[in-house]
Design goal:
heterodimer; A: mainly alpha; 5 helices; 0% strand; B: mainly alpha; Arc Repressor Mutant, subunit A; 2 domains
């Protein structure tokens, strides 16, 4: 039983990363928490990973505010290229 | 009731859809020049296959479906060009330590994690640098999932990859990013 719940650091960090998006399953979370009992490194990784997620979130809010548009010059060039292509 | 058949009007494509398609592309590839090329290729492909347009969807939906294919083609290209070799190993992949941290990749305590707030502009710039240092396909999937916050299913559909493939990429990208931020910010 315990063998089935045993995971490596590679697997633990994968689950930790998945759980940052709230997409880890219950069994994965159990395995991760059991792994934490014996692995200080992965506990530290998780703590830092949570901080990274907060950082990504700020970045995400900034990026989503930005609407990317083509410049008028780009549009004119694109129009010209399209006209030439049609011929 | 009969629905009116939609016809194509290529003369108005640029005014009506160029910005929308450009934004769609740049959000996915994070490269303005490449996004411009993809939009241009989309319009060319649209003109070329105009005779196949059935008029059942709007012009925009049809053009977006063409652009989606272009994005997948780009993803496949970078996927085949730049493989996993570029990503540094973080865990032993064989032997009795298989799956354990490689010593020099073990996370270190961060010296200044608490003093510098996450609103700091320099910190955001450093994070961008670290994301840009990722292999292109990792950066693309990571941005779509984490920065643009697309659903896993949507990314898998758009890039034609499996969910497990996506999680492997996200995992490797995040491990690399953590290490990059540790070396260049938190313990710098």
């Amino acid at each position: 039983m315990f063998k089935k719940l045993h995971i490596t650091c590679n697997e633990a960090t994968t689950i930790c990363n998945k759980s940052q998006y709230k997409e880890a399953s219950l069994i994965e979370k159990i395995k991760l928490n059991l792994h934490f009992l014996t692995c200080e490194i992965c506990r530290l990784y998780t703590k830092q990973n949570n901080k990274m997620s907060r950082l990504f979130k700020v970045n995400s809010i900034d990026c989503k505010r930005k609407i990317n548009c083509l410049s008028e010059e780009d549009k004119r060039a694109l129009k010209k290229q399209l006209e030439e292509y049609k011929v | 009731m009969l629905q009116e058949k939609i016809t194509l009007n290529p003369d108005k494509w640029i005014n009506n859809y160029a910005d929308y398609l450009f934004n769609y592309a740049v959000v996915r590839v994070n490269d303005g020049d490449l996004a411009k090329d993809l939009v241009q290729e989309t319009f060319y492909a649209g003109l070329k296959s105009a005779k196949n347009f059935l008029g059942k969807s709007t012009e925009r939906t049809w053009l977006v479906s063409i652009l989606k294919r272009k994005v997948i083609d780009h993803y496949r290209k970078i996927n085949s060009e730049k493989g996993q070799a570029e990503v540094r190993m973080n865990f032993y992949d064989t032997g009795e330590n298989e799956g354990s941290w490689i010593e020099e990749r073990v996370p270190q305590s961060w010296d200044n994690a608490s003093e510098k707030t996450i609103e700091n502009q320099e910190l955001k710039t450093q994070l961008e640098v670290c994301i840009d240092n990722l292999p292109e396909k990792y950066a693309m999937v990571f941005r779509m999932k984490t920065i643009q916050e697309f659903e896993t299913e949507e990314i898998c559909k758009e890039l034609d990859i499996t969910a497990s493939n996506l999680w492997v990429i996200i995992h490797r990208a995040r491990i690399q990013l953590r290490k990059c931020m540790e070396d260049n910010w938190f313990n710098n």
